[in-house]
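**Backbone shape codes:**
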Amino acid sequence: MKKLFLYSVLAWGLALSSCGKDDAEPQNLQEPQADGSVTVSVTLPDDAFGNDSRALPQAYAGHKLRCILIVQENGTVTDRQEKLVDEAQDGSFFFTINPEGEDFKCSFWADYVAEDASATDGRYPDLYYNTESLPAVSYKATGNELFNNDACDAFSLSLLNGATAGTMTRPLAKVSFADERPETVASAGNVSVSNYNVYNGFDIVNGTVSDTPVSISYSGPAADADNGVWFYNYLFVGNKNSLPGNLTMKVGENTHDVSTENITLTANRKINATLNWERANGIITVDVSFDDPDTPNVGDYYYSDGTWSTSLNAEKTVIGVVFATSETEAAADSPENYDGVTFEDGKIHAWVMGWRDLHPTPRFVNASAEQGASGSTVESIEGVGQGEDDIYGFANCNAWIGNVLTSPKVYVALPNVMDSYAGNYNASVPEGKTSGWYIPAIGQLAALRNAYIAEDSKVKAALQGLVDAGYGSGDANAKVLLVEKNDAGANQYYWSSTAYEGSSSNSVMRMTFVNEDGVAVTNQNGGSSGSPCRPILTF
């Protein structure tokens, strides 16, 4: 099925978004201070601020994140405090409470309010959710505000009695309705949604959803016409994981009911409901898929211990950045392409680019192994992939090595990647979990190029995050961002491991990350020129 979520979902992530990540912080017990006060803290998911950084909390334009604490003693709310994101420290909110005894219970709700909201008696005006009756939360709006709006994201947590710290999760599912044919959405103009009944209420203490539905409605442009998304919402999930009934869609002069029977809601998940409007005849049924929270995403950091995360974990060693996953370009890859490698779960999860280029800029072949030797050319290309669709970089590299050069010629880029990159650049790979470093095939470089030059590129942003965090700061030769032009202003072309069979000689394909009209994206070189090289690995 076509991946539906290519559009940017700025704040959506996962409460525990990295596979292998530590579990949520323990719900600590804390001794009261001498005056009887207790400090309570709650941590938000890594990406809850919308910029994948806990150091610089931000929100959607026109909004600020608000966190509410309620304290219950003997089942009665005895304290309520609210803070805005400005008061957060490293992704956590801290509250001071004065409970009567030790058997108090702290619960939290975090949502978005207007950026210019001011407090009255310590409370900020609700925007999308009604919090007047906490621990019960309900929708405040029922119209367009609840559609196609990531500021409807929210988080909650209820601690054990006496506990004073924990991490919030989403009590919501993000449900999107999309079309099998994006061009249908692109040409449709506006869409209207009516008779859409959803359960209107969530108890942040016991996790139950209200039995009372409310009808929400929408009229306006599609959420993401280019990628075929009609509309999406954030819906409460607790003890109910289905919708109360069907909904009605109108596009142009045509109106159809859409069945929600196949939709199973799961908290903290993105649920993708796909339909075909053009073939609609009577009630439309949907195909449903969901995004697995344990899978990597493009732009995630990949660490030396084999884990990954959307936000940079300063306590771990980054060795690369995910640029393609099993849901994007890496879907065409399979474990059979990696002779001698055993992958976790027996499947390909992602392609990862190394965190920096090789230095010095290597030739593919040298005339000899002597210091200062001149460049030379490749010879046999037996077994090496050809063509711009080639994605078999790992196999290519091994095939090149099998094509022994005439003595005293030697390969340069290949051993510098496969044998030395991990040790030279603090990029050791987790044992038994990856292919190890290799030179990407031209098709893999194309996937990297597409991810790197994309508008609001997550890959480029992740690499910039490494620069900002000091990666490569002690080495003037470290190139973390991909090099587009050299010091003389000439376009730079990166080595691939894909061969090119010419009429009179063989060569190696290269690709540039320059994104300008008239620039040839690929070219070929016999192997004698120095070219940048960015290793990749598969896991």
Observations:
- DSSP finds six helices and 28 strands in the chain.
- The CA atoms of residues 326 and 349 lie 5 Å apart.
